[in-house]
Structures are given as structure tokens and as C-alpha cells.
Design brief:
CATH class of the largest domain: Mainly Alpha
Strand order of the largest sheet: 6-7-8-3-9-10
Oligomer: single chain
Structural class: alpha/beta
Largest sheet: 6 strands, mixed
Strand content: 5-15%
Number of helices: 23
CATH topology of the largest domain: ABC transporter transmembrane region fold
Distance between the termini: 51 Å
Length: 645
């Protein structure tokens, strides 16, 4: 793995390691679809070759029928196959031209449909595979806020690949057929004039190589800029509430303006080259046409070969040359678009496979232990963890011993049915510690065990089905309330959903809504209050019916009345379940079997509520700090009732 800089993302690190990305695209996604590609290419070849027939027929007809100064002949076609009389030659010409245009139309339709089937099937598979990969990536990836990067891959990059497969490849074949076919015909008609017509081709080739070398790094910067712009837009839109409440609109506009200006600058750097390249190619092709007209016109007008040339040039041949020279201008000028699409697709495919190549470290073991029955015993044995370790893995870095430990040498046991509570200041490592049980991260040292098994020896699905997780940052998908309660248990009946809602103290407020369980909650559940969202999340966990429950400050974001309602739901939910709870308000965990006080990732105190108060340490200090408001809170809770907050 190459050395990376401090601000590199996994995309940057692994994209640089992608070798021959477009070849890889074909080898990984071509099998099973190549028949469509082959049909399209054959049809395109037939269509392009057919388009060269009318100029040939026209030239032969002019010389043999209209000018009458030559025999009716066509390159590589035996004269015995051609008609001898002028009338027969006329109708043969008409029929051949009509047949050629019909072949062009049919071939164009076939290759259009076939090429699009191939391109869109590949695009569909790439997009789904990228999303599947994203779903399986370690949480460290998402901690780095790569949402905009992923959206750029799923949308912009896959679209670039589709355009390349659909347009650039077809146009490349068209270019090869037209240039190759026209070159062969011109040399068969008059090899001396053919050299004049094709004199610009070597210059075009050199010009194209220069363009590809210079434009490639600009495309890489452009793709990076659009990804960063997407990330900035996504973050700004998601945080619009904070922006408004802090009157920071101008600040956000400035940040978006800066990201957009970078994208603008990088895009213009590409376009400036493109606008130089295409006119340059058209100029060279135009000079070739002018040279052909000059030499051929002189040849016919003076009725003698100019300069070192010898022989004769017939009018029909000259007309064919002019037509075919014009035919060659368009595909040669199209090289700029082909190169644009190629470089864009190359940069995009590097990003696609850069995402695909990010290794996943939290995976199922090769020979997992079957977790048939869960009792709910949880053990943490000298557990140590650092985010820097996961980040270094993702970026291919060596830590060199300078990582900051988030959790250090933590040990405790929760027997089946026990409640273990974690308290401590923000950043003490409480949430991270419990996420290790779910294998959202893996420990650096020590073990987390479930019923005596290291969780790394179990299937991830088995562990997560056994553990229900309720966080303070409740997420609801845009959909109905019933859909959100049912999430993760998609086949649950309506009765089961309602029963779970009743257990979570959510049924009453749901029934009070106009559409009841069919009420749409909006993006992230914005149409519901914080307390309502929390109870929907609890109902979802009730429906899961886990043996172990993790409560990550599940009531910290609601008012006192709502907390009382939610706490009633939690008390029912935790009965006979092993519960690991992070407490914001200590009153909610005073009955816990064990309370752990964390500081800087280490357990500094442990015991039950009374023991810790008697020790007069950090817990006692925290309790006294909250006790001043406790009497008032209890009086408020005594009023009862259900809050809509």
C-alpha cells in the first residue's frame, strides 16, 4: 500500500492502487452480457460499412452513366457482377443506394438497443454492487463522513461509465471502421490522392496522445471536486436546522461557494483543453479536405497530374473523394468526445473500484460458532480499542504507536437479566464500549464475549439479532410508522406491530394521529416529536425481542414528562433481559446491578448506587450535581400524562 497523507480518504488511498480500471470493468462485469456487446458491435460495423456504399455508387454512376467517360466499376467487385447497360446501371445504383441506407438504419437501431442493454446492465450491476459494498463497510468509513463520496460513486460515476460503454465504445468502433474503410477505398480508387487526403492523420494521432496525457490528471481532480461538493451539500442540507438557529446561513453559503468554485475551476481546466482539442482536430481534418479539393480539382481542371503524380483522375472518383473526406471529418472530430468520455470513465472507474477495494475487517469468521440459544451473559475482558487503528487499516497506514486509546483495559460481567450502567463525561468512551458488543467495531486487545464466546467467533447476524440497540439519536426512515416499527422484522403482522407499540407506550399517540399507523413520518422522522420518535424506536426493539438490550442515553433528548413515559416503556422492556445502559440522568439507573464510572476510556469506579454514594467519589459528585433538580423532577413526573414532545 502506498504512503498516504493525513487528509486522505479511503477513496484516495485505494483509488491510487487500482490498475487498468476499464479493463477490470469489462472482465468483472462483461461476462454474461458480452453477447449484447458483440451484437451491437457487429451491427455497428455493418451500419458504418453500409454508409460508405452511396458515395462509391455515386462516383461510379457519374463516370459511367452521366459523364460517360468510364466503365461502371466498383472496388473489389468483379465487373462480371455489375450491369452492362446504362439503364440497368442506373437502376442498380438506385437500388444499391437505397439498400445501403436501409442497412444503415437497421444496423443503427440494432447496435443502439444492444449497446444500451449492455451499458445499462453494467451500470445497474455496478451501482448495486457499490451500494452492497457500502452496506458492508466498517463503521470507521462512515465515521469519516464519506456520504458525499459514496453518492458521487452511486450517481455520477456510474453514469459516466454508462456513457462510456454506450457512446464512447460505439463511436470508437465507428471511428476505426470509417477511417479504416475510407482509407482502403481511397487507396483503391487513387493511391496518390489518398496520401494527400490522409496526410493529417499522423498529426491528429500525435495531438490526441498529447491531449490524453495532459487531460487525465485534470479529470481526476474534477471527480474529486464533485465528490467534495456533494459531501458539503449533503452536510449543509442535513444540518439546516442548526444553521438557522445559529444564524449561520452566510457561513454555509460561503463553504458551499468555496466547494462549488473548486469544482468550477477543475471543470474549466478540463473544458479549456477540450475546447482546444476539438477545434484543433476539426482544423486538421478541414486542412485535409482543402488539400484534397486543391489537388484533385487542379488535376481535373488541368487534365494533368500535378507535381510528381501520374495518371488520370475521373470526375466520379473526385466526387467520391470529396464525399469520403467529409465522412472522415466527423468521426475524427469525434475523437475529442471519445477521449473526454474515456478519461472521465477511467477516473470514475478508479473511484468505483477504489470503493470496492476498501477492505472490510469486521467480518464473519471462516468457521463461525453456532449461537443457537442465547442466555444473555456478557463479558468484557481487558478490552482496549482505538479509532486510529481502524482508520489506519482503512488507509493502509502504520500507526507507529501514536494512537489515542478510546477504551483501555475495561473488564466487567453482566449475568443474564442483570443491568449494567455506564456513566461518565462526554467522550469517556461509553458508546464506543457498547458498540464493540455489536461488532460495529472490533477490539484491538482483549475480548468481548457473549455466552462465553468471543463475539468475533460468531456470525455478525447472530450477534446483532440477539442484541437490541436504542440510541439517543433515533433514526426513522421516510415511510409509515408501521414500516418503521417493522424495520428489521419485515414480515411481522399488524397485530404484532400494535402489540409492540403498546408495550413501548406509543399506541396512544399513534392512534391520535390522523392516519394512525399509516402516518408518514417524513425524512428522519421529522414529522414526529423527539419523544414520539424515541417510543417508535423502542417499539421496534420490542418487536425484535432481543435477549440483550443496549440503551445509549435513550431518554437524554426529551423533557421530563416524556422521559417518564419512555422510562416506563424501558422498565417493561428490560424485565428479564440483560441490559447495558448509558445514563444521562442518573436517576434512571439507580437500580442497576452494577454501575461503571468511565473516565478517559478507563473504569475508575464500580459498584451499585448505594456503594458508589458511600465511596464519595466521582459518582457521588455527579449524583449531587443532579440531585438539586431531582425533587422538582419527581414532582413533575407525579403529574403523569403522556407528552407529545
Amino acid at each position: 500500500m502506498s504512503t498516504t497523507t493525513d487528509d486522505e480518504t479511503p477513496f484516495d488511498a485505494y483509488r491510487d492502487e487500482v490498475d487498468r480500471p476499464l479493463w477490470r470493468l469489462f472482465f468483472e462485469y462483461g461476462p454474461g452480457r458480452l453477447h449484447w456487446f458483440a451484437i451491437g458491435m457487429v451491427a455497428n460495423f455493418i451500419a458504418q460499412m453500409s454508409s460508405l456504399i452511396p458515395p462509391l455508387i455515386l462516383g461510379a454512376a457519374i463516370d459511367a452513366i452521366f459523364a460517360g467517360d468510364g466503365a461502371y466499376s466498383l472496388p473489389v467487385v468483379p465487373n462480371a457482377w455489375l450491369p452492362a447497360t446504362e439503364m440497368a446501371q442506373f437502376w442498380f445504383s438506385v437500388s444499391a443506394i437505397a439498400a445501403a441506407f436501409i442497412a444503415v438504419g437497421i444496423g443503427t437501431w440494432i447496435y443502439g438497443v444492444s449497446a444500451n442493454l449492455f451499458a445499462h446492465e453494467v451500470m445497474h450491476s455496478v451501482r448495486v454492487d457499490c451500494f452492497t459494498k457500502m452496506q458492508n463497510l466498517d463503521m470507521t468509513f462512515f465515521d469519516d463522513k464519506q456520504t458525499g463520496e459514496v453518492m458521487a460513486v452511486l450517481n455520477d460515476d456510474t453514469r459516466n461509465l454508462e456513457m462510456f460503454l454506450d457512446n464512447a465504445l460505439v463511436n470508437s468502433l465507428r471511428l476505426l471502421v470509417m477511417v479504416g474503410g475510407i482509407t482502403a477505398i481511397l487507396f483503391l480508387l487513387n493511391w496518390q490522392l489518398a496520401f494527400v487526403t490522409l496526410v493529417a492523420v499522423p498529426a491528429m494521432f500525435v495531438f490526441t496522445l498529447w491531449f490524453m496525457r495532459v487531460v487525465e490528471p485534470r479529470y481526476v481532480r474534477q471527480r474529486s471536486a464533485v465528490a467534495r461538493l456533494n459531501t458539503r451539500l449533503e452536510n449543509s442540507i442535513s444540518g439546516v436546522g442548526l444553521t438557522k438557529t445559529t444564524s449561520s446561513e452566510e457561513h454555509e453559503v460561503g463553504r458551499v461557494r468555496k466547494a462549488s468554485k473548486r469544482f468550477f475551476d477543475d471543470t474549466m481546466a478540463v473544458l479549456k483543453l477540450s475546447y482546444l482539442y476539438r477545434p484543433g482536430m476539426e482544423l486538421l481534418a478541414g486542412l485535409a479536405f482543402a488539400a484534397t479539393f486543391l489537388v484533385g480539382g487542379w488535376w481535373i481542371a488541368m487534365e494533368s497530374a500535378p507535381g510528381p503524380m501520374t495518371g488520370t483522375l475521373q470526375v466520379g472518383e473526385f466526387v467520391t473523394f470529396l464525399f469520403l473526406t467529409q465522412f472522415i471529418v466527423a468521426p475524427l472530430a469525434e475523437v475529442s468526445n471519445i477521449v473526454d468520455q474515456y478519461e472521465n470513465a477511467k477516473a470514475s472507474s478508479e473511484r468505483v473500484f477504489g470503493l470496492m477495494d476498501i477492505p472490510v475487517y469486521v467480518t464473519d469468521p471462516d468457521d463461525p460458532v453456532d449461537l443457537e440459544r442465547v442466555d444473555g451473559r456478557v463479558e468484557y475482558d481487558d478490552v482496549t480499542f482505538s479509532y486510529a487503528t481502524d482508520e489506519a487499516r482503512a488507509l493502509g497506514k502504520d500507526l507507529e504507536g501514536d494512537e489515542e486509546l478510546i477504551v483501555e483495559d475495561v473488564s466487567f460481567v453482566a449475568d443474564p437479566g442483570d443491568t449494567v450502567a455506564l456513566v461518565g463525561a462526554t467522550g469517556a468512551g461509553k458508546s464506543t464500549l457498547l458498540k464493540l458488543l455489536l461488532r460495529l467495531y472490533d477490539v484491538d486487545d482483549g475480548e468481548v464475549r457473549l455466552d462465553g464466546h468471543d463475539v468475533r467467533s460468531l456470525r455478525i447476524d447472530d450477534v446483532r439479532r440477539a442484541v437490541g440497540y436504542v440510541s439517543q439519536d433515533t433514526f426513522l426512515f421516510d415511510g409509515t410508522i408501521a414500516d418503521n416499527i417493522r424495520y428489521g422484522n419485515f414480515d411481522a403482522s399488524d397485530d404484532a406491530v400494535e402489540e409492540a407499540a403498546r408495550a413501548a407506550q406509543a399506541h396512544a399517540f399513534i392512534e391520535g394521529l390522523e392516519d394512525g399507523y399509516d402516518t408518514r413520518v417524513g425524512e428522519r422522522g421529522i414529522k414526529l416529536s423527539g419523544g414520539q420518535r424515541q417510543r417508535v424506536a423502542l417499539a421496534r426493539t420490542v418487536l425484535q425481542d432481543p435477549e440483550i438490550l443496549i440503551l445509549d442515553e435513550a431518554t437524554s433528548a426529551v423533557d421530563t414528562k416524556t422521559e417518564f413515559m419512555i422510562q416506563q416503556s424501558i422498565d417493561r422492556l428490560t424485565e428479564d433481559r440483560t441490559t447495558l445502559a448509558i445514563a444521562h440522568r442518573l436517576s434512571t439507573i439507580r437500580d442497576a446491578d452494577t454501575i461503571l464510572v468511565l473516565e478517559d476510556g478507563r473504569v475508575v469506579e464500580r459498584g451499585d448506587h448505594e456503594t458508589l454514594l458511600a465511596a464519595d467519589g466521582r459518582y457521588a459528585t455527579l449524583w449531587e450535581a443532579q440531585a438539586g433538580n431531582l425533587d422538582e423532577a419527581l414532582e413533575t413526573l407525579a403529574d403523569g400524562g403522556e407528552s407529545g414532545q
